[in-house]
Amino acid sequence: MVVGEGDGDRWLLHYMKWTADGHIYCGLASSRDGINYARVNGGATTLAPGEPGTWNAGRIALREAPFQVGDTWRQY
How far apart are CA 30 and CA 5, in angstroms? Predict the structure, then answer.
C-alpha cells in the first residue's frame, strides 16, 4: 500500500517492508519531487510489530493516510 502526504516542499511515503520470514514492518520515505524517494533513517522501522503472542506480533498493515496534529504525525 502506498500512502503519500504532502509536507511543505516534500512528500512522505509510509510503506510496508516485508521480511523473508513473513513479518511486515513500516518505514518512511521522503521525496522532493513525488517521484524519487529515499528511505528516512536508512529504512528504520517506524511502526514495529508487537511482542510475541500479541495480535499484532507479525504484521502491521497501513490502511489510513498519516495525518498531522500540531507538530506530530499520527497514523492508526
Answer: 10
